[in-house]
Design goal:
The chain has five helices and seven strands. It is of the alpha+beta class. The strands form two sheets. Strands 4-3-7-6-5 form a five-stranded antiparallel β-sheet. Strands 1-2 form a two-stranded antiparallel ribbon. The longest helix is centred in the C-terminal third of the chain and has 31 residues. The chain starts with 5 loop residues before the first strand and ends in a 13-residue tail after the last helix.
Length: 200
């Protein structure tokens, strides 16, 4: 036997001088299945975003309202209830020497001719630094006017710090080799390689 979910509403009415109740029954089985599927999809999306440290942001170019998903707040180390999102407060979380990357007057970006793809630092409330990768694009109205600026941001601190550490080690190795060559040339030393297993 197939089970279905019903939504039942009753209304009191007067009909031919008699008090009656009109009952409306609606099959909501498919509606609830769709709602459950949407909820499960959203939960999977939140889990994937958390694992990837990936958040979504949206900037309304008309009202200047900024919207963040929960993961963006987490990346920035901010609480949704206490941090007011606006462009001024956002810039305060970014080192001053990187503010140029947030030029809202960039016409190539604003008119959708170029996407945003930048890597920059952010300053956490405890003054620690994180690295983030920002991707964004503009949505225009039917008339071609820029309307919505939206995109993603991902915490890449671990990858960036590993890259910087590798660069430092590479630089130190190059410097050490240069010092060794200098010492070798000044001292006029010779170096011989001997295999002790073949020595007689």
């Amino acid at each position: 036997m197939k089970k279905i979910r019903m939504k039942i509403n009753g209304h009191r009415v007067d009909f031919q001088s008699k008090k009656c109740v009109v009952v409306v029954c609606q099959d909501i089985t498919e509606e609830e299945k769709q709602a459950t599927a949407i909820k499960e999809s959203e939960e999977r999306l939140r889990a994937a975003s958390s694992i990837a440290k990936l958040g979504y942001w949206r900037f309304d170019l008309e009202s200047h309202a900024i919207t963040w998903t929960d993961e963006v707040y987490k990346i920035w180390g901010r609480q949704k209830e206490s941090f007011e999102i606006n462009f001024e407060n956002l810039l305060k979380t970014i080192p001053a020497d990187e503010h140029h990357a947030f030029n809202l007057e960039d016409r190539e970006v604003l008119f959708g001719r170029k996407d945003v793809d930048i890597i920059h630092r952010i300053i956490l409330p405890d003054h620690n630094i994180r690295w983030v990768h920002v991707l964004g694009r503009v949505k225009t109205s039917e008339g071609g006017n820029p309307r919505i600026f939206e995109g993603t941001v991902q915490d890449i601190t671990i990858q960036k710090e590993s890259e910087l550490q590798l660069n430092r080690m590479s630089k130190q190795l190059i410097e050490s080799e240069a010092k060794f060559r200098t010492i070798f040339e000044i001292a006029s030393l010779g170096i011989a390689q001997v295999d002790p297993t073949k020595a007689k």
